[in-house]
From TrEMBL:
<dbReference type="InterPro" id="IPR053943">
    <property type="entry name" value="RlmKL-like_Mtase_CS"/>
</dbReference>
<dbReference type="Pfam" id="PF22020">
    <property type="entry name" value="RlmL_1st"/>
</dbReference>
<keyword id="KW-0694">RNA-binding</keyword>
<dbReference type="InterPro" id="IPR029063">
    <property type="entry name" value="SAM-dependent_MTases_sf"/>
</dbReference>
<keyword id="KW-0489">Methyltransferase</keyword>
<keyword id="KW-0808">Transferase</keyword>
<dbReference type="InterPro" id="IPR004114">
    <property type="entry name" value="THUMP_dom"/>
</dbReference>
<dbReference type="InterPro" id="IPR000241">
    <property type="entry name" value="RlmKL-like_Mtase"/>
</dbReference>
<dbReference type="InterPro" id="IPR002052">
    <property type="entry name" value="DNA_methylase_N6_adenine_CS"/>
</dbReference>
<dbReference type="InterPro" id="IPR054170">
    <property type="entry name" value="RlmL_1st"/>
</dbReference>
<dbReference type="GO" id="GO:0032259">
    <property type="term" value="P:methylation"/>
</dbReference>
<feature type="domain" description="THUMP">
    <location>
        <begin position="44"/>
        <end position="155"/>
    </location>
</feature>
<dbReference type="Pfam" id="PF01170">
    <property type="entry name" value="UPF0020"/>
</dbReference>
<protein>
    <submittedName>
        <fullName>Methyltransferase</fullName>
    </submittedName>
</protein>
<dbReference type="GO" id="GO:0008168">
    <property type="term" value="F:methyltransferase activity"/>
</dbReference>
<dbReference type="Pfam" id="PF02926">
    <property type="entry name" value="THUMP"/>
</dbReference>
């Protein structure tokens, strides 16, 4: 087995969650600027892709160095052991980004990195002609930050939020990685009721079900590194078998969602079916103000409209008020609402137990948390 420097990338504000997940997989990591860095073998690469619920992608770091000039970028890229990563037929496009660096022309940096790799590979594979690049994809990135170039290969392919179950989506769907993060930030356990009153395309309830049954979020998709010649098929077979063994398909769940829009409900049902939860996660059409329950100690996670669109503000604020009144009755439930509306607590009618800043894409939001009463001791023991 080889040893690789692995980077799990994380959206702003999600680093601690990704680091926690990486630790749970058994790897010690370092966190820096949206990157969770750790070392591991081929199994670590496969497991990270398959299991990390809140990371954006998995990358392999090939090298990192200071580069103030194009010459330095070229020479230091050429000095890296590319032949250990790229076979002769590799397809290796180069993408790039540059932040606060002397080398700010991204297209030039990409071209130079490409040229340096080609040069190195020509020498190693003893070729004078161009490479056909008709084999597996190794997407390379040169990322400059304060004159430090980090060169990586993407091991995921499509971003990890693409779980493979979301065929249909509404207007403002939450990324699956973010939905998983919301569930993981609650005190929910699979034996408690879980409810999303603004379910849209169903992302939050579906992610809760995946977590509840300990199903690997990537079980339903493939990864670009499955095609790599140095990632043996046995590794992928082993980690998929392991994931199958770890899944708790018998875990009973009480997960449901509703939405004011019946088209959304249909979409959520289709997506849940795609994820394998057709019978397990229940969806219905309903307005949040009609929510009632006789159940206790449940968890509500909701991503309501934020009221940012013109003409929507008043209606949304009114709906926040109604929500506050309805949820006031649920003193054993814990309630988590994600919104960018900074006056949410006023409309809802109560200050949150705790607020956590999160970015929903580029929108700065807060997760307003209202913790419910704890179960009495004997109930806690039963749970
Ligand atoms: C931001 S979207 C939720 C997106 C969802 N998390 C997803 O991943 O697809 C907000 C949803 O709230 C629904 N909604 C708006 N007002 C509502 C109300 N009063 N009661 C229930 N649902 C409402 C909208 O139809 C919309 O689907």
């Amino acid at each position: 087995m080889g040893k690789y420097e692995i980077i799990a990338t994380a959206a702003m504000g999600m680093e601690a969650l990704v680091a926690k997940e990486v630790r749970a997989l058994g790897y010690d990591s370092k966190v820096e600027n949206g990157k969770i860095m750790y070392s591991g073998d081929e199994y670590a690469i496969a497991r990270s892709n398959l299991w990390l619920r809140t990371a954006d992608r998995i990358k392999i770091k090939v090298g990192e160095f200071k580069a103030y000039t194009f010459d330095e970028l070229f020479e230091r890229t050429k000095a890296l052991p590319w032949e250990e990563f790229l076979p002769e037929d590799a397809e290796f496009p180069v993408i790039g980004k540059s932040v606060k660096s002397k080398l700010f022309s991204v297209s030039d940096c990409q071209a130079i990195v490409k040229k340096a790799i080609v040069e190195r590979m020509k020498k190693h594979y003893k070729r004078n002609s161009w490479f056909e690049e008709n084999g597996a994809l190794y997407r390379i990135e040169v990322a400059l930050l304060k004159d430090v170039a980090t060169i990586t290969i993407d091991a995921s392919g499509q971003g990890l939020h693409k779980r493979g179950y979301r065929a249909a989506q509404g207007e403002a769907p939450l990324k699956e990685t973010m939905a998983a993060a919301l569930v993981m930030l609650t005190n929910w356990h699979p034996d408690k009721p879980f409810y999303d009153p603004f379910c849209g395309s169903g992302t939050i309830p579906i992610e809760a079900a995946l977590i509840g049954q300990n199903i690997a979020p990537g079980f339903n998709r493939d990864f670009v590194s499955e095609e790599w010649n140095w990632m043996p098929q046995k590794v992928w077979d082993d980690v998929r078998t392991e994931a199958e063994d770890l899944a708790k398909y018998d875990q009973e769940l009480d997960i449901a969602g509703s939405d004011i829009d019946h088209r959304m409900v249909k979409m959520a049902q289709e997506n849940a079916f795609e994820a394998g939860f057709g019978d397990l996660v229940k969806f219905k059409q309903m307005q949040v103000k009609d929510f009632t329950t006789t159940k206790e100690y449940g968890v509500i996670v909701g991503n309501p409209p934020y009221g940012e669109r013109i003409g929507e503000k008043n209606a949304v604020e009114m709906m926040y008020r109604e929500m506050g009144q309805v949820f006031r009755e649920l003193d054993t439930w814990s309630i988590y609402i994600l919104t960018s509306n900074e006056e949410f607590e006023q409309f809802y009618g109560r200050p949150a137990t705790k607020k956590r800043k999160l970015y929903n894409g580029s929108i700065k939001t807060d997760l307003y948390q209202y913790w419910g009463k704890r179960p009495p001791r004997n109930k806690e023991l039963e749970n």
